[in-house]
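Lecture 7 notes: from sequence to structure.

We start with a single chain of 188 residues. Read the sequence below before looking at the structure.
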Amino acid sequence: MNKVFKYSAIGVLSIVGVAHIGLLGYVLRKPDVAPVPTFNIPRGPYSSYKIKAGKDGYEIEYRSDDPKVLQSERSLDLDKEKRGFFGGGREQRKEYRLDQYTRDGTRNLGGAIGEEGKSAKQLECILEDAGAQSQGAMAGTSIAAGVVVPAVATIPYVGWLASGWALLLGQNLGSAAGSTVNSMISDC
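Now the structure, written as tokens:
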């Protein structure tokens, strides 16, 4: 039994030793070249991307709607002599025009595209609401300055800061209240 135990222990230790050496060789071996990654970037007619690769890693810059602004520039330099019924003279003109377009070819006129103009009633409501907010803000600030600020200003160390907060809070609450009262009165 002693010999059987001895040979089986040698066999098991030999297998473990060979496996250990093989595992160390696998772990310590460095690959020759790192595998190159595959980037699946969505591509379309108006997209662009840049990929920079270096020793420290990869950098990808992707724009899904490029170019964002389409524009056209035109210039005219005119220098000519006038001829006609009332005589001569020189005409000198210089014109420059820059137009921006959307992707579908609509010229940008400086406003929101597709938005219709406001009616007279809507404009009147906007003006009334602005006036009501302004009046409410003044009233809220006055009430806060007369009632809340003297009480809050006596707080040690932070009274000056708390009084400023109280004035701003009174202004915001007064503005909201003025807008609410105006919407109930003027039916906007």
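The chain has a mean pLDDT of 81. Keep this in mind for problem set 3.
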